[in-house]
Amino acid sequence: MRRSNVDGRDLARVIRKARNLAAEAYEKQGMSRSEAQAKAGKLLEGVTLHTFRHTHASILIAQGVDILAVSRRLGHENVKISLDLYGHLLPG
After folding, report:
1. 29-48, pLDDT tens digit by residue?
2. In degrees, to the nearest 5, what angle opens at C-alpha 42 toward C-alphas 35 and 32?
3. Does the predicted TM-score (pTM) go above 0.70?
């Protein structure tokens, strides 16, 4: 698997895009633009690069990717770290 090179600028761009999409969805529900932007900003409060990293690992596991492959992708020192963090997501 290819390791992506994501930096803070990329994350800021993704969060800005998500906030705009959320604001548009709220506007379609009849909210004013300023109300929609405020609600969208609140929705994404606390989203960090780590949030995306954890979500990525969770999706890989849900798709049946081997935990060792996930561990390597995340750069964990050993598979035990991955099992401690994501073991509850494994089937059975």
Report:
1. 888 888 887 887 787 788 77
2. 10
3. no
- Quickly list DSSP for 7-40: -HHHHHHHHHHHHHHHHHHHHHTT--HHHHHHHH
Query: Can you give the residue ranges of every domain in the chain?
Result: 1-47, 48-92
Residue with tokens 């494994």: 90
Burial of 5 by CB count in 10 Å (0-12 exposed, 13-18 middle, 19+ buried)? exposed
Provide CB contacts within 8 A for 3, sequence distance 6+.
Answer: 73, 75
Separation of alpha carbons 58 and 67, rounded Å = 10
Neighbours of 78 (CB within 10 A): 9
